[in-house]
Amino acid sequence: MNNAALDLASVMLEITRAKFCNNFHDIKKVKIFWHNLTLLYFATAICKQLSASSHNCSLNTLTKMNLIPNDLLSFEKQNKSLICDYKFFRCVPDDNINLALMREDLLGIDLYISQNYMSLKQGKVARDTTGSYYTPCSLAKAVVSKAFKNAECLDHLKNEKSAIRIADFSCGGGEFFNAAQECLFEERGIPYSVSATFFWGIDVDPIVMLITVGNLLSQADYDDWNTISSHFHLGNPLVSTAVEQDLRVKHDMFALGRVYAPAMGINFNKKEFFTPFDIVLGNPPWEKIRFEERKFFSSYSPEISDLAKKDERENAISNLRYSWIELFNWFEETVTDYATMCSRTFKHPLIVQSVFGELNTYALFTELSYRLLSDSGICSLIVKSTLVTTPSQKTLWSYLLKNKVIFSVSIFENRKKIFQIDSRERFAIIILSNKESEGFLFCAGLQSTEELYECPEIKLTENDILRINPFSGMLPNTSSTENIQILLKSHSELPLFQEVYPKCHFGRLIHLTAHAHQINREKKNDNLPIYEGKFIEQYDARFSTFKGVNPDKKYTAKATARKNDEIGPDGIKLIPESRYFVKKDLWDKYSKQYNKAYSLCWRSLTSSTNARTMIAMILPTCPTCQSIQMLQIDDDVDLIMLLALFNSIPFDYFVRLKMPGIDLTQSVVRQIPVPNKAAYEKVVVHNDICAPLKIHILSCVYAILRKEPMLNSLMQKIKKNIYPIDTAITLEQLKRKLDYLFAEAYNIDTATYHDIMQTFPKY
What is the structure's pLDDT at 607? Predict the structure, then answer.
């Protein structure tokens, strides 16, 4: 953390403690006071920087340009003695410190506030509320360069002020404006003083917007200051209103974290501002618009935040009416903001296609940015990759695809920490243009900004996407451009799972939450144990157990079972001990729909970044919970073949590319390309034995499962048609044999198979 930010926060903490005499029950006043202190610091710093670089600037100057509320000067006067006593202005730098980075560091410091105590702690509640994760300069420049390279509006750009309109609707610290100025100067010779008039911005954070405008003013002619400041608008562009609130109200809403309050709304009928833009840039927040109780209370009432059960948490919150009414009222107001935003009454004149299901800010900003483009305009945004890969965004993605406005999609992996977030996170640069195109350029697997300039791109059409993912119509979750080419080839040569196995009966049986009233924690009467996904590993139905797990940990939401290494008298691992049991009448009701003796089951909750994504095993049909997906099929031999197919690397490879999230559902399985049944009749020599692929596969599966008592009757059905395999061969060796055999069935050539294996580093 930046020492300057921590020093500033420490001084502000002392001032706030003194101001409220360590009585913080009126928490809204405390939060607003803290915000005003912060605003005073940055406004003063900007005045210093502007006065040093160009023209004298004071708080009065910023007030006249409507960049700070009118009452900030009176706030300074009212608190002058405290500010002086604690030498607040000594924290304001005289040099050109990067104020945007300073603000980012400050947002990484959360306030802990109780009724009589206040402290600092490192956290990210404040950052998450506003989505304040700023873009590295190198990435911003790469995004800008890619947009500028294809922007027709720049072809005849003149060296004149306000010659072009460039917008960022979540402008943050102005990273994209800085990059745009640099590109315009380097590539077209446009002076910074001229380009400073090209930019328009919106943000919910008044301080970062002030920093952005201040930076532009420092480069501009003094005569242009009012013009430039008029190009920036405080508020939330996702919230539409006919009547805007004044600056002070918006500042207060931001101070309270109420960024979705109606008071933060923007009037999009302001034609002087919202006429079409030539270029739209940005990295909008990647947040789901939902209120999280536990996160809200983590800094004010950790005892509430720590309550995992919703009913207990609701009771504790209700009790705040008597113990801390101010906190309760603030909580209620914030809940109402989110409820209104997420309700069916949500309306926005420019956002239509991205409002289905759970609202995601990056999708809403993408549509807003596209709607505000001029006829020749271009939009270049950094968004979460799920915008183009997840079925929940199908409505917006299909709209953009069908209207042929997608120019390019470049998918990044965060392994090298471009952003200081989870290294497994994926994001995309998506470029939209009103110039229709029959296809768009695509590349994937990028890990650095440099790769964006040199990565080979392929052209994809809507038909290509529908061939790859006919149900969802989304891009695959690919880690390389080559994967797309493999998918296109495979889908042109192979049928889909649903075409080869049309009569599969899919399902999930018992839901631990929905059926909670018919589920017990102990074995009672004739109730039945529930199998969970944790118990299953590839070809192993006894992988883990809850036997011996501490009850305090056993029933938590993310309980971990222990590896099952207990061997029974028959030399086989014991059947896993369940933690939940279902009443027999409920099981009888559901099992009527699944009348086969055996089911193919797989872990539903998984990930494309795991060592293996598809983890499957055959079980005698029994109660299973939602962490297991299952299917039944008429032919038992087909069931065994499907088990081997599901656990093979070729099948797993395609699953990884089709997985939109962490839930491996039947819809994913249905659209996986698979070999025709006839392919298994192909005769090959394997381990000096000449036989059809089907016989080789069944022989390997029998060798793996011959000692599993639960599957004895099933194994007997294939025993007579197979050849014996040396018992000294290990499970891993047999799995590798099966991988090879299915590569043959898929007709995958050696080079492609090598590329596929590279995506499974463990193997």
Answer: 79
Q: Give the domain ranges of the chain.
A: 385-493, 499-758
Q: State the helix-helix crossing angle for 325-342 and 310-323, rounded to 10 degrees.
A: 130
- H or E segment at 208? helix 206-219
Under 8 Å CB-to-CB from 373, ≥6 apart: which residues?
A: 276, 277, 280, 379, 432, 433, 434
Q: Closest Cα partner for 539 from 616, 487, 468?
A: 616
Give CA–CA dist 94/115, Å, rounded: 36
Q: Which two tokens stand for residue 280?
A: 């739209």
By the 8 A CB rule, do 648 and 672 touch? no
Burial class (CB in 10 A: 0-12, 13-18, 19+), 303: exposed
* Beta-bridge partner residues of 598: 620
pLDDT at 210: 97
- DSSP 8-class letter at 562: E
- Which of 150, 105, 103, 414 shows the shortest CA–CA distance to 281? 150
pLDDT at 129 (0 to 100): 59
Which run of H or of E encompasses 143?
helix 137-149
* CA 633 vs CA 11, 502, 594: distances in Å: 69, 10, 10
Q: pLDDT of 396-446, one tens digit each?
A: 999 999 999 999 999 999 888 888 888 888 999 999 998 888 899 999 999
Instruction: Name the residue type at position 652.
Output: D
Query: What was the pLDDT predicted at 1?
Result: 43
Q: What is the DSSP string of 454-487?
A: H---EEE-HHHHHHH-TTT-PPP--SSHHHHHHH
∠ CA(149), CA(153), CA(157), 5° rounding?
A: 95
Identify each DSSP E strand in 575-664 by its residue range.
581-582, 598-603, 616-620, 628-632
Please, which contacts does 688-691 make with residues 24 or more away whose CB atoms are closer than 8 Å?
Answer: 689/723, 691/723
Apex CA 344: angle with CA 342 and CA 345, to 5°? 95
Residues of the chain with pLDDT under 50: 1
- As a whole number of Å, the end-to-end CA separation of the chain is 39
User: Nearest-CA neighbor of 209 among 168, 250, 171?
Assistant: 171
- Name the residue among 704, 613, 599 with its Cα closest to residue 642: 599
Query: Which amino acid type is present at position 471?
Result: F
Name the fold adopted by 499-758. Answer: Adenine-n6-DNA-methyltransferase TaqI; Chain A, domain 2 (3.90.220)
Give the pair of three-digit tokens for residue 350: 């420019």
Q: Determine the Cα–Cα distance for residues 606 and 629; give it in Å rounded to an integer.
A: 11
pLDDT (tens digit per residue) in 78-119? 999 999 888 888 877 767 788 998 998 899 899 999 999 999
Neighbours of 718 (CB within 10 A): 20
- In 3D space, the residue among 441, 353, 423, 427 whose CA is nearest the CA of residue 388 turns out to be 427
Q: CB neighbours (10 Å) of residue 156?
A: 7
Angstrom distance (rounded) from CA 34 to CA 718: 74
**Nearest by Cα to 138 from 176, 109, 172:** 176
Contacts of 492 (CB under 8 A, 6+ apart): 467
Taking each continuous run of H as one helix and of E as one strand, the counts in the chain are 33, 22
